[in-house]
């Protein structure tokens, strides 16, 4: 039953933020922790046994999933303007949020059947899970200016990310308890049975989907449906999303603050997202993990999971710290400081060799990861004119910029890595993007230049 709460109501803001609790299990369990290790084991075994399609026999197993990931991001970039336009003009934004939520969650459950014996179907399921997650974020993020006033948005955004980090860590710990000891055949809840051990991993993907769908219902109970526009003057509602993006792009000429901020965000987000996507691979390839004397295997898996948990826990404090600091010095100055910290972390990361050094890096990444994601979202939200109805189109523009940046960042990382013969060179190269981001952030005007002025008591941008 729909519950109508006024903008700024604490329960409405909490319900919105709780969607992070629901969906963040995907980004931790599927993107960062269990599925990458599961895929590495399954793909290596398939290549060793020759159970790979003829077309992919000469392709590196990790490149398969990287290419599919890039394709999925491109698909999201192409469809989100169409869908956001439909959502804005039909007034059914919540229905689109629910559709992508269910698409992603059910696809996560489907990942329990992932196998190289029917690889194309498995990769399609993986792609649909990614599209569901990132597609839902377009509509979720667009609700922020609808449910919270300007002075509430930094705290609301931080609350969302913090709930997401806490919820995802809880489920990851539960999954690790089920798996009991990682992915070594000599360990696990059922050491004598590889099939039973694999079932525990598959159950983790099922739990992600159920967690996502189940907890999202609390959000749906309070979020408004959306504001319907008069569609009589719209010639084609399916292409209106691109018209809206064009209108927003042309309108940036009158909003110098947003225009320059988006330029800075595109550059530094390119580097941030690349680091987050390749961190696990860097830890596997470049860190000298100790050898387990009992199994003769590297302790990389255990070390990586510990690092991921550390990142998630520290990120909770990072999100709130950014919110508090932004109230003191403003969003842009805080983002400049965070970008400087990111550059320093990349420089330090170039010299990381030991597990202890990697843990230190992970802790620092967690601090700035939570802060830059939360504050970037709320900063953009503050710059949207307060009388704007089609907020989904604004956030679709934001989302497209981020996704294209991810694709470009990963391509650059791969090219530089191929040229340097390792992952340290690309990590150091990313420092350039953070430096450019700092320079561009310095050029963001301090005064609101849009048609809708800020209130005098609003926190500084």
Task: Determine the N-to-C terminus distance.
Answer: 37 Å
Helix content: over 70%
CATH superfamily: MFS general substrate transporter like domains
Q: Round the Cα radius of gyration to an integer and report it.
A: 22 Å
What count of domains describes the coordinates?
Answer: 1
Question: How many helices?
Answer: 15
Outline the structure in words:
With 461 residues, the chain is an all-alpha fold. The chain has one domain (10-223, 237-442): Growth Hormone, Chain: A, CATH 1.20.1250.20. It has 15 helices and no strands. The two termini are 37 Å apart.
Reconstruct the topology from this structure.
Blueprint: H1 10-49, H2 61-90, H3 93-110, H4 119-142, H5 144-147, H6 150-179, H7 194-220, H8 240-251, H9 256-286, H10 300-329, H11 331-350, H12 355-383, H13 391-420, H14 424-429, H15 431-442
List keywords for this structure.
15 helices; Growth Hormone, Chain: A; 461 residues; mainly alpha; single chain; globular
Structure described in brief:
This protein has 461 residues and is mainly α. The chain is built from 15 helices and no strands.
């Amino acid at each position: 039953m729909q519950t109508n709460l006024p903008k700024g109501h604490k329960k409405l803001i909490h319900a919105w933020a709780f969607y992070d609790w629901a969906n963040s299990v995907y980004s931790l369990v599927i993107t960062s922790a269990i599925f990458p290790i599961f895929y590495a084991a399954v793909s290596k075994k398939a290549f060793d046994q020759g159970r790979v399609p003829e077309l992919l026999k000469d392709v590196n197993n990790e490149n398969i999933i990287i290419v599919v990931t890039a394709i999925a991001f491109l698909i999201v970039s192409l469809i989100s303007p169409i869908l956001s336009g439909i959502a804005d003009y039909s007034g059914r934004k919540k229905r689109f949020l629910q559709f992508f939520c269910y698409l992603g969650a059910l696809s996560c459950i489907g990942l329990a059947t992932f196998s190289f014996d029917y690889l194309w179907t498995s990769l399609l399921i993986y792609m649909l899970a990614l599209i569901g997650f990132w597609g839902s974020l377009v509509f979720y993020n667009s609700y922020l200016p609808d449910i919270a006033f300007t002075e509430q948005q930094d705290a609301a955004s931080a609350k969302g990310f913090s709930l997401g980090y806490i919820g995802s860590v809880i489920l990851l710990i539960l999954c690790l308890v089920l798996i009991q000891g990682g992915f070594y055949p000599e360990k696990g809840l059922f050491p004598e049975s590889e099939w039973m051990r694999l079932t525990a991993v598959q159950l983790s993907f099922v739990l992600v989907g159920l967690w996502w769908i189940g907890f999202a219902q609390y959000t749906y109970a309070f979020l408004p449906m959306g504001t319907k526009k008069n569609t009589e003057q719209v010639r084609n509602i399916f292409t209106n999303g691109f018209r809206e993006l064009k209108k927003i792009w042309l309108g940036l000429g009158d909003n110098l603050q947003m225009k320059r901020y988006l330029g800075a965000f595109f550059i530094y987000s390119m580097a941030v997202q690349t680091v987050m996507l390749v961190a696990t691979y860097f830890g596997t390839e470049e860190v000298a993990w100790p050898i387990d004397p009992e199994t003769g295997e590297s302790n990389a898996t255990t070390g990586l999971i510990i690092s991921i948990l550390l990142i998630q826990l520290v990120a909770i404090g990072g999100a709130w710290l950014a919110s508090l600091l932004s109230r003191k010095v403003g969003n842009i100055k805080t983002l400049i400081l965070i970008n400087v910290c990111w550059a320093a972390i990349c420089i330090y990361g170039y010299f990381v060799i030991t597990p202890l050094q990697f843990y230190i890096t992970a802790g620092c990444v967690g601090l700035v990861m939570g802060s830059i994601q939360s504050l970037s979202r709320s900063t953009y939200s503050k710059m949207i004119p307060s009388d704007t109805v089609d907020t989904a189109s604004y956030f679709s523009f934001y989302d497209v910029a981020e996704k294209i940046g991810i694709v470009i960042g990963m391509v650059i990382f791969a090219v530089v890595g191929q040229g340097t013969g390792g992952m340290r060179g690309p990590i150091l190269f990313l420092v350039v993007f953070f430096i450019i981001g700092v320079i561009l952030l310095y050029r963001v005007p301090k005064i609101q230049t849009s048609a809708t002025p800020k209130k005098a008591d609003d926190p500084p941008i």
